[in-house]
């Protein structure tokens, strides 16, 4: 049973999080490294180029990689500290087994593998193949993502595989497919520089994708107008021309009203609409009543600001629209995304220089990881697992009979629900910390405790791994060769800088060994990561995410290659849609009606305040890595409740007073941070922490019906000041970033 073997404090004592700082004078060998390895930051979707300095098989520092074209040497606070996760005192050095009363004790690889394989077989023989599930992460390289997808379907023979991109960009992916038939940002980011108007919707770029700020500032320096849509006055909004402080959960009302304004004032590209799109009339019919006055009432934004934004967007000759989780983490996430795309299509500003649209991928390999088959409904090349032709093609590549290829499985949160129902009994996870990152974390914890067997592959013992029966010590990003795909759609090389320490193994070798012991060694014989990539190339050939023409050599020679790249001699595609041939069945870009609908939970007398969640600059997602790096924690040591002075006054709340925040799912206590940079009806809590500091104790498991993304960005809460001031932080500048 996947319960904690000893009290959590004892586990934390041995496995952290421990704060790792660089030695005062730097690591020995920092000034005379054996090697400077050109690779990429392991964190967000910007995938900034970086050089890791290596001495005697240890990463001892970093240098900027000035030639890499996206970030040109720039790095954010996470990038400059990321090397400290290597050589970390919490690093898992051997397989562990959970022993009740003792904790996690080292064991041999043979023992760990034998136990895992025998439990997989036992559970599947007793309950069926789909009773064993798999959850994976998109910090994994393309090769590992592909391998996980194949492993789950061919070795585990389960349909229930999903990934933590489900919590990230799936609404964008689904919206992109509906509109364009393909899921990728339409341009590389250098096109931003000459855009006349840039809309940034629900994307705290300066904190969550900091190096992208540079491209927006370049445009601003050339006179571009910047429009930021966000309930908080995020750093980018402070220098924007217009800040639309949208009420959480009302985004589609705003986009609908802007679209109606464009129609009413004939700010449309009729040639583009008539010749290259479909669905325009139904879409504008859906917003025909969305006046500026109505939109002001629903969204809480001054109607004059909405008009001004629509005017700027409508009159621009070149433009770019970017969005991220702020509009995607909703039970109407796909509606929000297509609402944005409708504005782009109405003005025809796509597929041309300095005109584009894109979601900003959050996770390191959020783009590539969502293309090659570790989603519950997808096969490599962004193929559909329910499409007979796609199934046949991939079955042939994998050398299996199509009838043996499992069908569509459950999404990440649905897997948790199925564990509760007793339908799923076993779980293997890799680089995913659902106890922190999924909504309604108390419900997730209860699910973990119901599992008959849980095996976790990871390099740190994160909060979810503490529930595992067996932990297989896997590899950090810099311990294996591979590729990732940045938010621009650029496929890049991840280089192995060091080998895994102690008895830890590469993730790839662990998966291959499990496949061998599950009796399918012949389907999993690869000499190295490049061999996996070469099979991925073939598997993706003919799919919308076609990597066939991309090779390791080309990536290195060309500093990355943009997919689609269907042939060896193909140059790659930095800017999509220049040919106006979209990947939809009719070859046209699709408008999609996106009428405004209420969020899954609205405020009422019991829960009168809107709660929204997000990230801070120094932390990354569930914090498995960044809560272990000293300076990143110093910068923002604990989650704070951001609240507007007027709302604080209403409750008599003082700065840093402890506030009990309750929702229908749970409660947590957070120090108040009274700021004028948030709407008066909304509070914000960052979600990187666990246990009593977890924002996701509060968030709902309401899912978007199409993308199955949870609604992290809006729920109803109750505030109760506890009349106790939180102890001061030891770092006086700890919250400088908020
Ligand atoms: S912007 Fe993203 S990829 Fe670049 S250094 Fe920061 S966390 Fe790493």
Task: Report the sheet with the most strands, covering strand number, pairing sense and barrel closure.
Answer: 7 strands, mixed
Helix count equals: 24
N/C terminus separation: 41 Å
Shape estimate: globular
Q: Strand share of the residues?
A: 15-25%
Helical proportion? 25-40%
Overall pLDDT, averaged?
96
- By oligomeric state, this entry counts as single chain
Strand order of the biggest β-sheet = 5-4-18-17-16-6-7
- Ligand roster: iron/sulfur cluster
* Gyration radius, rounded: 25 Å
The stretches of 5 or more residues where confidence is low (pLDDT under 50) are: 731-738
Number of strands: 28
Structural class: alpha/beta
Give a quick precis of the structure.
Helix 4 (142-156) packs across helix 21 (529-540).
Key traits:
disordered C terminus; alpha/beta; 738 residues; binds iron/sulfur cluster; globular; 28 strands
Write up this protein.
The structure is a single chain. By secondary structure, the protein is α/β, with parallel strands linked by helices. 30% of the residues lie in helices and 18% in strands. It has 24 helices and 28 strands. The chain has a seven-stranded mixed beta sheet, sandwiched between helices. Helix 4 (142-156) packs across helix 21 (529-540). The chain is globular, with a radius of gyration of 25 Å. Mean pLDDT is 96; it is low at 731-738.
């Amino acid at each position: 049973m996947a319960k904690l073997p000893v009290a959590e404090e004892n586990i934390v004592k041995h496995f952290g999080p421990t704060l790792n700082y660089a030695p005062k004078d730097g690591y020995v060998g920092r000034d005379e490294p054996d090697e400077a390895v050109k690779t990429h930051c392991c964190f967000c979707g910007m995938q900034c180029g970086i050089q890791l300095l290596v001495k005697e098989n240890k990463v001892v520092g970093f240098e900027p990689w000035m030639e890499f074209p996206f970030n040109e040497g720039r790095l954010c606070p996470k990038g400059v500290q990321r090397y400290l996760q290597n050589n970390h005192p919490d690093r898992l050095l051997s397989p562990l087994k959970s022993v009740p009363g003792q904790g996690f004790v080292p064991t041999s690889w043979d023992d760990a593998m034998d136990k895992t394989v025998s439990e997989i077989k036992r559970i599947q023989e007793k309950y069926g193949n789909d009773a064993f599930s798999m959850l994976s992460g998109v910090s994994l390289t393309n090769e590992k993502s592909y391998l996980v997808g194949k492993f789950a379907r061919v070795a585990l023979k389960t349909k229930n595989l999903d990934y933590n991109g489900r919590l990230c960009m799936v609404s964008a992916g689904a919206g992109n497919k509906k509109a364009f038939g393909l899921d990728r940002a339409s341009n590389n980011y250098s096109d931003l520089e000459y855009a006349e108007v840039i809309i940034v919707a629900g994307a705290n770029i300066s904190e969550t994708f900091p190096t992208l700020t540079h491209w927006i500032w370049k445009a601003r320096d050339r006179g571009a107008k910047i429009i930021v849509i966000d309930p908080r006055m995020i750093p980018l909004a402070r220098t924007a021309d217009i800040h639309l402080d949208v009420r959480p959960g009302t985004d589609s009302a705003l986009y609908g009203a802007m679209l109606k304004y464009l129609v009413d004032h004939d700010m449309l590209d009729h040639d583009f609409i008539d010749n290259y799109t479909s669905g325009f009339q139904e879409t504008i019919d859906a917003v025909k009543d969305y006046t500026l006055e109505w939109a002001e009432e629903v969204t809480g934004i001054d109607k004059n600001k909405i008009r001004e934004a629509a005017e700027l967007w409508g009159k621009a000759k070149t433009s770019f629209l970017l969005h991220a989780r702020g509009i995607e983490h909703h039970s109407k996430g796909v509606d929000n995304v297509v609402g944005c795309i409708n504005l782009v299509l109405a003005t025809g500003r796509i597929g041309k220089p300095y005109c584009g649209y894109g979601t900003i991928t959050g996770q390191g390999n959020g783009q590539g990881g969502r293309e090659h088959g570790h989603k519950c409904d997808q096969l490599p090349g962004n193929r559909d697992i329910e499409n007979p032709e796609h199934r046949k093609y991939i079955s042939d590549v994998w050398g299996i009979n199509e009838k043996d290829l499992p069908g569509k499985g459950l999404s990440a949160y649905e897997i948790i629900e199925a564990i509760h129902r007793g339908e799923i009994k076993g779980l293997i996870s890799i680089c995913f910390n659902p106890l922190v990152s999924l909504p309604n974390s108390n419900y997730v914890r209860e699910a973990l405790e119901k599992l008959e067997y849980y095996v976790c592959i990871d390099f740190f013992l994160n909060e979810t791994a503490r529930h595992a029966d067996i932990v297989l010590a896997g590899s950090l990003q810099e311990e294996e060769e591979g590729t990732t795909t940045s938010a621009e759609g650029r496929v890049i090389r991840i280089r192995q800088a060091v080998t895994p320490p102690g008895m830890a193994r590469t993730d790839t070798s662990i998966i291959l060994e499990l496949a061998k012991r599950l009796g399918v060694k012949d389907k999993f014989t690869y000499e190295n990561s490049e061999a996996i990539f070469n099979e991925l190339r073939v598997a993706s050939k003919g799919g919308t995410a076609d990597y066939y023409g991309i090779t390791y050599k080309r990536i290195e020679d060309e500093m990355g290659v943009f997919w689609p790249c269907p042939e060896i001699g193909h140059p790659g595609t930095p800017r999509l849609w220049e040919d106006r041939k979209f990947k939809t069945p009719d070859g046209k870009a699709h408008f999609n009606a996106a009428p405004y609908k209420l969020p899954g939970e609205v405020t009422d007398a019991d829960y009168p305040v809107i709660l929204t969640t997000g990230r801070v600059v120094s932390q990354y997602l569930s914090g498995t890595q960044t809560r272990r790096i000293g300076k990143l924690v110093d910068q923002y040591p604990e989650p704070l409740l951001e609240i507007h002075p007027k709302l604080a006054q209403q409750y008599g709340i003082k700065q840093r007073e402890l506030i009990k925040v309750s929702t229908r799912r749970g409660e947590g206590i957070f120090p108040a941070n009274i700021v004028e940079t948030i709407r008066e009806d909304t509070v914000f809590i960052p979600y990187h922490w666990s246990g009593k500091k977890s924002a996701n104790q509060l968030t709902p498991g309401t899912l978007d019906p199409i993308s199955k993304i949870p609604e992290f960005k809006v729920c109803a809460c109750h505030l109760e000041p506890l009349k106790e001031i939180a102890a001061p932080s030891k770092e006086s500048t700890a919250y400088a970033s908020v």
